[in-house]
Amino acid sequence: MDVAFPCRCITFLLICYVTTAIDPRFLIQPDDQRIVLQYGGSPIYVGLDCLADYDMVTMHVYWFKNGVPISVNYLFHEDVGELVDASRYSISGGSFGKYSLQIMTDDDYVTFDTGQYYCSLLYSSNKTVIEKSRTADINIHTSPLCVVDYGTSLYYGNAEGDVGNVDVLEGDVVELSCWSKYIGTPGEDIMVWSGDDVVENITNIPIIDSDDLLISSIVWYPERENHNMTFTCTHRLPGKPNRTCQAGPFNIMYKPSVNVAQLQMQITNYQITLLCNSTGNPSVHEYVWTWDNEVITKNDNFHFENNHTILAIQGLAVENNGPHYVTCTGINDVGNTTSENSTIQVNITFSQTTTVRPLTTEIVTDYSKSTVMVTNQVVHDAIVAPVHDCRIFILGSIIAAIVSFLLVIIVIILTTCLIKKKRQRKSQRKNVGKYPDSKSNEQSPTEQFLLTGKNTDIYSM
Ligand SMILES: *[C@@H]1O[C@H](CO)[C@@H](O)[C@H](O)[C@H]1NC(C)=O
Ligand SMILES: *[C@@H]1O[C@H](CO)[C@@H](O)[C@H](O)[C@H]1NC(C)=O
Ligand SMILES: *[C@@H]1O[C@H](CO)[C@@H](O)[C@H](O)[C@H]1NC(C)=O
Ligand SMILES: *[C@@H]1O[C@H](CO)[C@@H](O)[C@H](O)[C@H]1NC(C)=O
Ligand SMILES: *[C@@H]1O[C@H](CO)[C@@H](O)[C@H](O)[C@H]1NC(C)=O
Ligand SMILES: *[C@@H]1O[C@H](CO)[C@@H](O)[C@H](O)[C@H]1NC(C)=O
Ligand SMILES: *[C@@H]1O[C@H](CO)[C@@H](O)[C@H](O)[C@H]1NC(C)=O
Ligand SMILES: *[C@@H]1O[C@H](CO)[C@@H](O)[C@H](O)[C@H]1NC(C)=O
Ligand SMILES: *[C@@H]1O[C@H](CO)[C@@H](O)[C@H](O)[C@H]1NC(C)=O
Predict the structure, then answer these.
(1) Structural domain tally of the chain?
(2) Domain range for residue 378?
(3) Whether the Cβ atoms of residue 4 and residue 27 lie closer than 8 Å to each other
(4) 34/134 same-domain check
(5) Contact (Cβ atoms closer than 8 angstroms) between residue 219 and residue 177
(6) Ligand 5 pocket mutation, candidates 257, 277, 284, 310, criterion most atoms within 8 A of CB
(7) Which of 42, 122, 125, 295 sits at a 20 to 30 Å CA gap from 238?
């Protein structure tokens, strides 16, 4: 426009003084519009643009509605065609070819004003059409106004009466209201709320008829299952199109729900893998694990995977025997939740084999009897994995063989000693003499004492 202004001046001068041939054309043409009047409130102006480059002396600009002329230049004449209420219609724009049509519409005229509009250039003399602008579809209808009352905020519907994308917390109170103009005869207007999902907990407050306004409110306690749902308020009138507004979708946010699930357990190397199983909206962005009430940090025994959703515990030893308590806390923007205590019952058992070699004790771990049990306090879920470890078997066999070998050696040594002693005793007896019974090899310690003058159990086996 600003750039075009000098040109228009020149055009005007040309028209006034030269009256030469101009190629008539439209520089600005009307656009399609969808106009929503809210609940019969204040009237609104519908604007349709038209800017023409033409010979003002011989031509006129007309507005047409549904093929019938309604205006000539700036005038609405009774003889133009369709009789329109000039108090609702106006043409603005001034000189230089601008003829923007404005229609003030309200609830009573939405049907009348809805239609196809274009502006047209005609010869003034014989009303022959020279040029026609594009046709604009003007769609005017009325909608109720949806209003969401949540927390300390009121969310009013947009031009179409709709409220979109509201974040609410699960369990909070949300009040949805629908406002519309009472247009039927008493009792004809009906207002209905519906959800695009099953809503179990809706309290309906009856329609209130105050002056000419129809108001319906519902109270809703959002639950996570209702996530993303949209409510529709419909104002129904017999024989007229439904008037609707929508509220939603609602983003239903809630604190995480958390439980600890056991993913895997390997008894041979005492590794347990636990999953912090959580849901939350927004999703959990941080996980904190505790072991016996201490927050776990990554170290040799604990490591994390998948952004701390998975905890791997490894290197459990006999000193870890006993119950341990594991919890996981999931944190999202709404809050945090700590899982129930999961109990890890560690029971690593040992079988002890003592060799006769003095001062040497070998301890053999018997994996098959060890257990690591993970229980959530609710669900008892013991897992004992049987393990057949060949290394243990071989080690056990070798030790058994060594022990057997040593025992045989000891028996041989002792037997040899015994025989030697007997021979010694026989020779002693010969020396001391007069001992009554020489047939028995078995002798009581008392007898030995008598014989040797010393109390010893060296012979008893
Ligand atoms: C209408 O009038 C214009 C001049 O004013 C002329 O050029 C045109 O041919 C006329 N059209 C008809 C259909 O008579
Ligand atoms: C709806 O939910 C709220 C809070 O969750 C509860 O106080 C109320 O009793 C429920 N109403 C019905 C009708 O179930
Ligand atoms: C929510 O609904 C919209 C459409 O209403 C859809 O595009 C979107 O994918 C939905 N989101 C979820 C998380 O269901
Ligand atoms: C209006 O909406 C109701 C449902 O709320 C439907 O049954 C009815 O057919 C609709 N009427 C029109 C004219 O669209
Ligand atoms: C995670 O928890 C949900 C519900 O609490 C449950 O259905 C699902 O099986 C759990 N997943 C694992 C891996 O335990
Ligand atoms: C870890 O979190 C980051 C950011 O939240 C994300 O981009 C990444 O994909 C996550 N990785 C895994 C393995 O979940
Ligand atoms: C968890 O929430 C409580 C309040 O509910 C807060 O006091 C605490 O600091 C939170 N813990 C973490 C780790 O965010
Ligand atoms: C888990 O159990 C231990 C031992 O009984 C206790 O000290 C701890 O407070 C419990 N923690 C939770 C979150 O219940
Ligand atoms: C550990 O395991 C052994 C052998 O299986 C069993 O006798 C003992 O009772 C267990 N101890 C505990 C505390 O479970």
Answers:
(1) 4
(2) 258-388
(3) yes
(4) yes
(5) no
(6) 277
(7) 42
Ligand 5 contact, 309 CB (< 6 A): no
Q: Kindly give the number of the ligand 7 atom that is closest to the alpha carbon of 336.
A: 1
User: Going residue by residue through the chain (461 aa), what tens digit of pLDDT does each one get?
Assistant: 444 555 554 544 444 444 456 788 999 999 999 888 876 667 889 999 999 999 888 999 999 999 999 998 888 866 666 667 778 999 987 668 899 999 999 877 888 899 999 999 999 999 999 999 999 999 988 888 999 999 999 999 988 899 999 999 999 999 999 988 777 776 677 788 888 654 544 545 556 565 677 888 888 999 998 899 999 988 887 777 788 999 989 999 999 999 999 887 766 667 889 999 999 999 999 999 999 999 998 888 899 999 899 999 888 888 888 889 999 999 999 999 999 988 888 887 765 444 343 333 344 444 555 566 666 543 323 333 333 343 444 455 556 666 677 776 776 777 776 767 666 665 555 443 333 343 334 333 332 322 232 333 232 33
Distance, CA 307 to ligand 6 centroid (Å)? 6
Same domain for 281 and 373? yes
Query: 109 CB less than 6 Å from ligand 1?
Result: no
Mark whether 156 and 231 lie in a shared domain: yes
Contact indicator for 391, 409 with CB cutoff of 8 Å: no
Nearest ligand 3 atom to the CA of 228 is 1
13 found inside a domain: yes
> Any idea what DSSP says for residue 211?
T
Residue 35 lies in a domain: yes
Closest by CA to 377, choosing from 338, 332, 421, is: 338
Residue 223's domain is classified under what CATH number?
2.60.40.10
Say how far apart CA 165 and CA 185 lie, in whole Å: 35
Closest-lying ligand to the alpha carbon of 287? 7
Protein residue with its CA nearest to atom 6 in ligand 5: 277
The residue whose C-alpha atom lies closest to atom 8 belonging to ligand 6 is 307
Asked if residue 32 and residue 20 are part of one domain, the reply reads yes
DSSP per residue, 188-205: --EEEEEESS--S-EEEE
Which-ligand-closest: CA of 24?
A: 1
Do residues 396 and 424 share a domain?
yes
